[in-house]
Amino acid sequence: MAKKRPQTKAKRPQLTDGQIPVVGAREPCPCGSGRRYKACHGRAAAHAATELVHRPFEGLPGECDWVALRELVPAATAGLSLKGGLPDGVPSVTLATVLPMAWPALRRDDGSVLLGLQNDTSSGDISRDLADTLQRALTADPGTPVQSRRAPADGPRLQDLLDPEGAFEPVVHSGFEFWVPDPENATADVTASLERANAAAIPTVKLSGVDSAYWCETPEKNHLRWVMPCPEEQLLDALARLHAAGGSSLGEGTRLVGSFRAHGLTVPVWDLPSGVGAEDVEKPAAEFAERLAPALASDAPLTADERRARGGLTNRQVTLS
């Protein structure tokens, strides 16, 4: 009997990593390995998509205000400048804390773009997710929202798209009327979303005398939340020095109560009496900034009292992101 010839399978051409498209997790990997995508090249893609970027807004103009608008401020907008200028048909690009129905972005009827900042993101790099949304919004049909999706792991970040010399000047609003140019003619869904958002918004004011400090009003007491660009350990040491010396308050009845940790930056928080408004804390905040500068510059070892103060501040630190 003639021997059977062994069956051989033609080898699939092997692709390089840069040529491998994204497919479903359970589909065969396009590289030809025979394994499912999730167990082959999809593993690296998933890792890249979920790896946390500690300071996603680092390098952008106004990094501290980006953090504040992402985590602390209910209603605010800021104009964005793109590298190379705006595309044809796009008169403006505006960052907004949130948009109606939590849309990631919206291309208005006039071609302008609103980019939402406080949305959930699919990866560990908020900057990359926002850049992907922005790029899609710039080419979306006028009058349509942009839906969420997983951003490509090798896609650009905001730092690649925005003009590094462009100003970043947040405008804090009392409500969300900026969503629609003509509220009276808004759809029922947008109107309902607007009413719900306005009812939940905490009154907030950005101080004018210092950078990235935001006063807010709550039913029981008011607060000042101040995003600072200093390295965390250095800032905590400086705050401890001031606290131990009795110089950490913003005036009578105020108290430094702790801090938030958000997107790689530290946000000291003060409790204020309910009668203390934003204008009342402008001068004390400027005076505190003057006291803080030499405390930040000091490299002397902390005293026992300063170490206790630092421990108290650390114990009352809350991580937001």
Task: Tell me about this structure.
This protein is an alpha+beta fold. The protein is 30% helix and 16% strand. The protein contains eight helices and twelve strands. The strands form two sheets. The protein has a six-stranded mixed β-sheet with strand order 5-3-4-2-1-6, covered by helices on one side. Strands 7-8-9-11-10-12 form a six-stranded mixed β-sheet. A hairpin with a 6-residue loop joins β7 and β8. α6 packs across α7 and α6 crosses α8. The N terminus is likely disordered.
Fraction of residues in helix: 25-40%
- Global mean pLDDT: 90
| Cα Rg | 25 Å
Oligomer: single chain
Q: Kindly name the structural category.
A: alpha+beta
Total E-strand runs: 12
Return the string of H and E elements.
HHEEEEHEHEHEEEHEEHHE
Enumerate how many helices there are, as a single number.
Answer: 8
Shape category: globular
Low-confidence stretches: 1-13
Gap from first CA to last CA:
73 Å
- Strand neighbour order, sheet with most strands: 5-3-4-2-1-6
- Please report which band the strand proportion falls in: under 5%, 5-15%, 15-25%, 25-35%, 35-45% or over 45%: 15-25%
Largest sheet: 6 strands, mixed
